[in-house]
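This part of the workshop introduces the protein records we will be handling. Getting from the letters to the tokens is the skill we practise here. The record below serves as our worked example for the rest of this section.

…
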Amino acid sequence: MTRGKQKIEAQRRNAERNQKPKGSQLEARAVGLKISCPICKVQLANHNQLMDHYASKHPKEKPPSESG
């Protein structure tokens, strides 16, 4: 059993460990999703995912260039 200062320190460490993380997953997701499909407005992380999205969802359309 711990007493005195050890007990207080252990309680403080446990409180820090059990604290919920700051921020939300939705905020982190919004930061990661930077490209959106101009046709259906779905958000994607990079140009390669946009190319795959166009190949599967919009096969008759021409995908936008990487710079635009």
Q: What stands out?
A: The mean pLDDT is 86. The longest helix spans residues 5-18.
